[in-house]
Design the sequence.
């Protein structure tokens, strides 16, 4: 009895473990990426513009807040959400980042920590793509140590007054609402700040060489006055922002595999067609070793991501486990991209191929939402019981 060869990007048959709904969602998003993202994303990256025209289609497919229950959200599995992130980032990190910020960094904390009025007001419109959100945590001087944030809020009658700056904020200039974390009487609280609020301004950060097809901004609050009911009532301290980041990191650890897969596919196709010294370069031992190592790391990352999805759906996934997934999968995806670039040679630095774009994007993914070093130390603390942060 003969056994057919496995698909090149599902070498271990992970698809067999997926539900029919999960396969259907992944296939639909793959088609969207193939038809609407990949043909134009290189141009957007080169111009430094965001691919906003796919937002209505993503909303129509139920991708925003898709892993949340109720309030217009699709209520799909964590595995389905991970698969969607993988497919979106196969197109570009900026496309996946848009979805992650909307669903995991803004909709999730509203769903988890907001009042019923806040949930009813914001979540259905965000799920429909009618309202865009952004997440304001990182500051110019405080990234890995959010507890040191300088942004403050003070109570003034029936309002709160916010002062401070947030930096490296995805979608910051186009967001209709910003979830801003600030210290109120020394305790970190979340505030929903609407676009146009007095004292709230934003500007786009320019001259980026990574995530160029994504909007990145600085938010400035100068005596910004927001109504009393703008504060998330059910959380204080770092549990709010870090819990939200944990949701987003889950999507990232899947998404990085999509970028790695795109680079691997490009390298494999190039190597089997590029002829040097009378044969395709895929026929040489050194190139075959590179391709084998790339596929092996992608396959290992897929198994890690799938197991974390199982744990998440069972309510047993810890932040340290998410840190392991984010740290490993992004690091390996970056190595896959670098190896693919070496296979493509000089062609690998042009936007005629997706490799250099993914490589540059992954340099940012390696750093944001927890640097590689922070995740290493998180795991170190978990296994030793000793914190090395301070």
Sequence:
């Amino acid at each position: 009895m003969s056994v057919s060869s496995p698909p090149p990007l599902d070498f271990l048959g992970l698809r067999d473990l997926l539900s029919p709904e999960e396969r259907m969602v992944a296939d639909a998003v793959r088609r969207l990426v193939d038809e609407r993202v990949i043909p134009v994303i290189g141009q957007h990256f080169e111009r430094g513009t965001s691919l906003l025209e796919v937002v209505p289609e993503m909303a129509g497919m139920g991708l925003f807040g898709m892993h949340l229950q109720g309030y217009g959200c699709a209520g799909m599995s964590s595995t389905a959400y991970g698969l969607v992130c993988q497919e979106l980032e196969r197109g570009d990190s900026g496309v996946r980042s848009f979805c992650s910020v909307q669903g995991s960094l803004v909709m999730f904390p509203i769903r988890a920590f907001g009042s019923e009025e806040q949930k009813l007001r914001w979540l259905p419109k965000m799920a429909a793509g009618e309202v865009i959100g952004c997440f304001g945590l990182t500051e110019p001087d405080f990234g890995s140590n959010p507890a040191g944030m300088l942004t403050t809020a003070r109570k003034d009658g029936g309002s709160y007054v916010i002062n401070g700056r947030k930096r490296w904020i995805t979608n910051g200039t186009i967001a209709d609402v910003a979830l801003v974390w600030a210290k109120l009487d020394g305790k970190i609280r979340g505030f929903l700040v609407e676009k146009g609020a007095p004292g709230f301004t934003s500007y786009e950060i320019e001259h980026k060489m990574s995530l160029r097809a994504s909007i990145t901004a600085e938010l400035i609050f100068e005596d910004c006055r927001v109504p009393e009911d703008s504060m998330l009532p059910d959380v204080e301290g770092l549990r709010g922002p870090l819990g939200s980041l944990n949701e987003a990191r889950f999507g990232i650890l899947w998404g990085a595999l999509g970028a790695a897969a795109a680079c691997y596919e490009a390298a494999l196709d190039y190597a089997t067609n590029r002829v040097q010294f009378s044969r395709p370069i895929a026929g040489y031992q050194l190139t075959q070793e590179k391709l084998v190592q790339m596929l092996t790391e992608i396959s290992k990352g897929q198994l890690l991501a799938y197991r974390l999805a199982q744990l998440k759906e069972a309510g047993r996934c810890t932040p340290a486990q998410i840190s392991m997934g984010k740290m490993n999968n992004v690091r390996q995806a970056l190595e896959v991209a670098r190896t693919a670039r070496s296979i493509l040679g000089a062609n690998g630095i042009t936007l005629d191929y997706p490799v250099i774009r993914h490589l540059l994007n992954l340099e940012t993914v390696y750093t944001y939402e927890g640097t590689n070093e922070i995740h290493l130390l998180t795991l170190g603390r978990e296994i030793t019981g000793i914190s090395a942060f301070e």
User: Anything to note?
Assistant: The first strand starts at residue 133 and ends at 136. The two ends are 60 Å apart (CA to CA). The CA atoms of residues 11 and 299 lie 7 Å apart. Strands lie at 133-136, 152-156, 159-170, 177-184, 187-194, 200-204, 216-227, 275-276, 279-280.
